[in-house]
Specification:
homopentamer; about 90 residues; mainly beta; OB fold (Dihydrolipoamide Acetyltransferase, E2P); about 40% strand; globular; bacterial microcompartment (chains A, B, C, D, E); Ethanolamine utilization protein EutN (chains A, B, C, D, E); EutN_CcmL_sf (chains A, B, C, D, E)
Chain lengths: ~90, ~90, ~90, ~90, ~90
């Protein structure tokens, strides 16, 4: 998984029907040499802009969605505790 | 998922039979440190050149195609709203 | 998918039995910031050295081979038309 | 797989229910050109901070967890022997 | 697949039970812009240190192992012929 900060919402009115109802956010990696890499993630655990989160990618991301047929490859799986200084 | 701009069509007369009928386009990543990376994507939601899109990659991409047997690893899953300034 | 040029054949007499009969070629990415990255691909559509091709990677690559048990992660799925100037 | 050093614990009180009980750690790649890349991994074999470990990523990572439904894409699969100087 | 040279053995006494009996080796990519990237691979075809090999990664790697439950994401699938000068 990667450590990322949520930095904004992403709006796409025209999209795959199976994606209706999902919240898309822009995440930016904040740890290690991949810092600054951005990806669009789906959030299902009510994370917010500014939160540092754990992002799972690939086929494992679909495991968060309760339906293996959703075309999503990156999801927020956890929000890192604020007092967890180490990232 | 990655944020990309569609920058052209890709034509391949000789290709896998299972790919007949699909529209291939060149996409270029436009956000974060991967900016400038290009990939060929399949579009099934009538996106056009110049559109900023959300691209899903890997096994999740096949979930857009209604047939898990298609040898495609990147698809357009959404078109980012024009008034979504943040990417 | 990535855009690559086929630049040579790769011979491996000792290999997995399930790979017997497949043609292996060296491909080099020719578009975007990944230009110059090389990968070994399987070709099943009679592509040749010098051809510009579309390469599918990951689990989707196995979809070209008619047998999900083949340990291959990159295949040629199309040959880009010669008059397709844009890549 | 990649060679990484475990450099800290990662705490996330709010996370997917299916992740309860798993131990998350920060790992940093320590071999080759990817040195310095960080990822969050799940450890199920009692590795500790400072250990050099073998990390498996992607769908193969879920094979460590006894449940294919867990949204995890990186796990520790082995602890490199201390007297294994070569990494 | 990637072209790599096997440069050493990797020993991990403490590891997942399902990995017992497998031979782990360090491989270094030797072709293209990823040259110098290292990964730990499983070898099941009696490759040796110094051999130039074809490495398959991801879910396809598990196809070499006869058991889809093994947490391995990179395996040697072929040894490149010594007289194959082109890599």
């Amino acid at each position: 998984m990667v450590t990322a900060k949520l930095i904004g919402n992403v709006w796409a009115t025209r999209k795959a029907e199976s994606l209706n109802g999902f919240k898309f956010m822009m995440a930016e990696i904040i740890s290690g040499t991949r810092t600054g890499e951005r990806m669009i993630v789906v959030d299902t655990i009510s994370a917010g802009i500014g939160d540092r989160v754990i992002v799972t990618t690939g086929s494992s991301a679909r495991r968060m969605l309760g339906d293996d047929g959703i075309p999503v490859d990156a999801v927020v799986v956890g929000i890192i505790d604020e007092d967890c200084e180490f990232i």
